[in-house]
Each structure stands twice: as C-alpha cells, then as structure tokens.
Design goal:
This protein is an alpha/beta fold. The radius of gyration is 29 Å and the shape is elongated. The model is unreliable at 4-17 and 563-571 (pLDDT under 50).
Length: 651
C-alpha cells in the first residue's frame, strides 16, 4: 500500500512540476536518461530536489525565469547517478587497521614481518596491533610457519593482519591465546583454523575463523568508532561523490561493532552525501532464535537517505582459500580437510532465514562465489517463494564467479538479480587462468559468466566491492564490455546495470535511477561521451559534477564555475533589461548615468559579444546572433562603475 501511495504522489507532483520555473537548468548537453521511452535528451531542469523537465533546448525555455541558473553543458554527457550496490565504504575509509600497508606481491613471509616491525605499530584501544594487505599465497608458500614468523617480532602483544581479500587473518601466538584458540578449538561455522598434520596451528584463520579474532580486536569503543566515523566523512563519502556514486549498498554492516549507529550519526549530522542501504550481517555463529528478532527490530525503510532493508549473508568463502562452495572437488585445496569448500550458512538454514525475514520486508544480499554456493542460494530463494508466494522480494546473489549452466535461467524465473564485479584486473580474460590450479581449466574458462547470465534475461547489476576493487564505475563499465567471451552487449546495458537496475535492487527505481520528470535530481556530468568513444577508453572517463537530491555534492576543477553569479547585481533597479527573458532584441536603460560598453558572457564566463554603448542612457541591443540560454550582461558606466545583469535568451 505504501509504495502505491508513493506512486500516486509521484504522478501528482509530476503534474505540478510541468509548469514551474526551474531552480537550475542544463542546456546543450547529451543526456542519457536510462528511460527507454526517451533515451536521450538535450536539456534538463531541476526544482528543489526533483527533476522538472527532460527534453530539448527549445522546450526547456518555459522553465527558465529570472532566478533560474542556466548551465551550458557545451555538449558534455549527463548520466543518472551511479548506484554501487556492493561496496564497503565504512571499512574502506577507516584507519582502524592503521597505515601499515603490506605488499600483496611480497614473496617472503619474513619480509612482511620486517615491514610490520619497521612500522613501529602500537596496540589499539582493545590491546591489539592491526595491519593489512598481504597475500595468502605469501604465507602458505613461504616455507615458514606464519604464526612463528610473526612471533619473532611480536612475542608479547596480540597481532592480527587482514589479508588483501579480507577472507583470512594472520595471527601470532599471543593473538591466538587472547582469542581462546588452541589445538583443540573446533572450526567455527563458515571458517577453518589452519593446522599442520601434527595439529600445530600455523596462524592463518580462513574466512569466519578470522572473526574469532577480529570481533575482539575491533570491538566498538569511542576511539574505534571515531576512526570509522571520520573515515566516512573525510575519505569515503567525498571519494564516492568524486566518482559519481549517488546511491550505494554497504555490503556487510557489522551491527555488533556499532556500524549502524555510526552511519546514523553521519546522517543526523547532515553529512550523508549518498543514499545508502545498510545490510546487517547475519552472524553465522549466532543462534537464529536469538538473532532473528534482533534483525527484525532493525528493519527501517522510510528514510530516503539511510535505510536498513537488506540482509547480508555468505553462502560460501572464496576460491583461492578453497572455501568457495563447489559442486565438484577442488583440483587443489591447500590440504584442507574438505574438498568442495564450505558454507557460512548452509542451505536449509538459509532457506528458513529467507522465508522468515523476507516477510519483514528484508531483501537478501547473498555472497556466493562457487557454483554450489550459487545453486544453494537460488534453492533457498525458491524455497521461500514456495513458502510465502511471490511477495515482491528483490533478492540478489553477488559475485557469481563460477555458475552451473543449469542455473542461468533461474535468475529470471525467480526474479533474482545477478550482481557481479568486474572492475578488478583479475576479472579480465587474460587472468582467468590464475584459477586453474584450484578448479581446473574447464571451470576457469568462463570466470564470472556475465554474458551467459545476461543472455538468459537476468537483471544484471555491476558493482565494485570497493575496496577490493576500484570504486570507479567506468573501470567496471569498460571491463564489462571488453571481457569477451563473457561481455555485455552495449554501453546502454552497462550504464543501466549501474543505474536503474541498481535502483530496482535498492527499492527506489520509482524515484531515481533514471532521469524522468518527478524523480529525484540524482545525476552526474562526465568529461567524455562514453557512447561514442572506443570502449577501451571508457575507464579514462572523469566525473565533472555529482548531484544528489538537487544538491551539487562534487564539482571538478575541470568544469567551469559559474562565478558570474556572485557578481550579478539584481538589486540595481537603475539599470534595466527589457524584456527579460527576451528574444532577438533587448532594450537597455540606465538611470545611473550614461553607458560606455556592453558585453555578453556565457554562463561559463566566456565573452562572446561586445558593443560600444556610445555614452547613451539607453539603446537597443541586437542579440539575434546568440543561441537560447542564460547570459550575463556587463554594462560599463561613464562614471567607471560596472553592473552585471543576468539575461535569459529565448526563441
């Protein structure tokens, strides 16, 4: 019922907007709308936080008044605001791991230890030394026991080092002791404590086993909360705006670490410059009978900028850990005591969670990398559909690195969005062979089967998984188009995957995701036309400005600033332009002395026309040679003063 009311309000306000004067208009552009009924336009107008008009340069004149700011795009491209529906902005911006960044290409474990020692790290407020960035390959192929190597430099203080993918943690002996992990500790659900054949713990905790340490090391306290908060407002949100991201999903919200409150504080302080959906983490180790009511109490879908209406669950791990869930055994699995991966949440439990919590309103954001993980995710969604009927759920499965061909059509059948990340270099075809050691050549040859899933009519979204990959959406767009044989078919398709399809996933497609009258004014302007340039140059695209809810949250130095506006003296009634708005001719009159010069500037500040006023107190200027738009008239007076007036030229 609520969505129906919003829809009728949308229609009502769309009608009201049709005859209003705009706050700001953008003319002479190429505007891609992501609206199939009107894919491209020349001009865009906004009023308050809504789109007032999308159409031609001529028709927009009806919305230009004396107070309207007109910006000449000079042919630049406007796109709907980018939706990045899988990213980690709080963690990407936080300094909780300090600033000691390890090199993932370092070959020797001992060299990593030397780097850590040279960083002169101090324990955090929870008593732990933290760092991040190494590769698991260095630890497992380095010829030494990682735990003991770390002990050499840090014998008395607990140390936890997060691996570059965040799917394993390197821990020293003191850290294991602090976390209560010993040779008799069983593997937690969704994780594995790596050991030698004699039972010696090597200090590498895979997947959810790492959280045995991190939940303690990163437990909420005022200092850690401040680091997370400051990282958002000082780094992540500004960087997102610079990359054109107007809406995003946090891909895992650790509510036990106070993440929900940190985001709420950002919102309450008026510093949230991106529409966000938070996804509370379904803790694998918790009892559902206790956790489900807590998750139900968190649900919040009424705020246009900060909502809690998705849940994050992991079906499996990742392939390089040999923890992604596969239908057939790994070719190589590091000697783990299981050969088809693991589950964080096994399929029967996942089925029950979805069928229970989707009736609250939650959509599920399911991490699945292996083909078994994908199948089980789809099976769980199908179970919920059979239990509850089609209640309009908008579940998605994310990553999809290995997918059973039998599952390709099931995305459309079950209305499950396929969310994939292809911005990272390792997703390009020349690197697919890196998977062969683990899963063999056949399973590697269609890594992230983007084309197969798209061709089976699935709704596809593209996202970054930042900071695992770059958050620049144009890298993702280019890679999605150039990764044959698993590529997307067109620029329009990849833009929709980053805009209107993401809006659907966030349950806001009626209000944003495309540029249509009555929708929120969320859009970006970029420096090149991605529809006409070679596809291998799309990644070079730069965002020139980002608008969210009718407010400009980022503007590049490369985009001219309409500095003339600050000089306009509209209070000086002794100088008049009539008519204004006007067409070919304008009468200029002065009651403040004779005029000596008359100059016309574009909204970007470019002088395009000048005339000698002949020391007269009135004259008629012929402006038929300039196109429609907003201009600034500079009038030089005989007494040496200058007055600048804004003039709107119409047909």
């Amino acid at each position: 019922m609520k969505s129906r009311i919003f829809f009728f309000l949308f229609l009502f306000f769309s009608h009201l907007l049709s005859a209003q004067q705009a706050d700001r208009v953008f003319i002479n552009g190429k505007i891609y709308t992501a609206n199939d009924a009107q894919p491209f336009a020349e001009a865009l107008a906004i009023k308050d936080n809504l789109i007032l008009f999308v159409g031609s340069n001529t028709d927009i004149n009806q919305h230009i008044g004396s107070s309207t700011v007109v910006e000449d795009l000079d042919g630049r491209l406007i796109l709907p605001g980018i939706h990045d529906v899988h990213m980690h902005p709080l963690e990407a911006g936080s300094l909780v791991y300090g600033d000691c960044l390890l090199d993932p290409y370092e070959w020797y474990t001992q060299d990593l230890v030397t780097t850590l020692a040279n960083c002169n790290l101090e324990p955090n407020e929870n008593g732990w030394i933290l760092a991040y960035g190494h590769s698991i390959f260095t630890l497992l192929e380095g010829g030494v026991i990682p735990r003991f190597a770390l002990d050499q430099a840090f014998p008395d203080v607990p140390v936890a080092v997060l691996e570059e993918t965040s799917h394993s943690v390197w821990v020293n002996s003191k850290g294991l002791e602090m976390a209560g992990i010993d040779a008799n500790t069983p593997d937690p659900v969704g994780g594995h404590i790596m050991k030698l054949g004699n039972g010696t713990i090597i200090g590498v905790l895979l997947d959810n086993a790492g959280d045995l340490v991190l939940h303690q090391a990163l437990a909420s306290n005022p200092v850690i909360d401040a680091l997370n908060y400051n990282g958002l407002i000082e780094y992540s949100l500004p960087l997102m705006a610079r990359n054109g991201i107007t809406s995003a999903c946090e891909a895992r919200t650790y509510w036990k670490r106070n993440y929900l409150q940190i985001w709420q504080d950002v919102q309450d302080n008026g510093l949230l410059t991106c529409r966000m959906v938070l996804t509370p983490w379904v803790y694998p180790e918790d009892e559902d009978a206790e956790m489900v009511p807590i998750l139900q109490s968190m649900y919040q879908a009424d705020d246009n900028f900060l909502r809690i209406n998705q849940l994050k669950v992991y079906s499996d791990g990742i392939s390089i850990n040999a923890t992604a869930a596969l239908l057939e055994p790994y070719d190589f699995n590091w000697g783990l005591p299981f050969d088809t991966g693991l589950n964080y949440i096994e399929v029967n439990r996942l089925s029950t969670l979805i069928s229970t919590l989707e009736t609250t309103g939650y959509d599920f954001h399911i991490h699945a990398i292996g083909d078994r993980g994908v199948t089980e995710g789809l099976n769980a969604i199908e179970f919920a559909r059979n239990q509850n009927g089609d209640i309009g759920a908008r579940h998605r499965i994310t990553h999809l690195e290995f997918v059973d061909p039998a599952d390709f059509p099931r995305f459309e059948e079950l209305n499950v969005t396929a969310d994939m990340q292809v911005a990272g270099y390792w997703t390009e075809p020349q690197y697919w062979g890196l998977n062969e050691d683990f899963v063999g050549a056949e399973r590697s040859e269609n890594f992230i089967p983007l084309k197969f899933i798209y061709d089976n009519n699935a709704r596809v979204t593209l996202s970054s998984d930042w900071d695992v990959s770059t958050l620049n959406p144009f890298h993702g767009m280019q890679n999605a188009l150039t990764r044959a044989p698993q590529e997307m078919p067109s620029v329009e398709a990849v833009v929709k995957a980053y805009t209107i399809h993401g809006a659907y996933l966030m349950r806001q497609d009626q209000f944003t995701g495309s540029l249509e009258v009555g929708k929120w004014a969320d859009f970006i302007c970029v420096n090149q036309d991605i529809f006409t340039i070679p596809q291998n140059q799309i990644a070079l695209t730069k965002v020139l400005c980002t608008w969210v809810d009718g407010t400009e949250v980022y503007r590049s130095d490369e985009l001219p600033v309409i500095s003339n506006l600050t000089q306009v003296d509209e209070t000086d009634k002794l100088i008049s332009l009539s008519p204004n708005p006007g067409s070919n001719y304008v009468l200029v009159k002065s009651q403040n002395g004779n005029m000596t010069a008359f100059e016309v500037y574009t909204s970007a500040g470019e002088l395009i026309w000048t005339e000698n006023a002949g020391k007269r107190d009135s004259f008629t200027a012929n402006l038929s040679g300039i196109p429609p738009g907003t201009y600034f008239i500079s009038i030089q007076l005989e007494n040496g003063s200058r007055v600048i007036k804004k003039f709107v030229r119409i047909d």
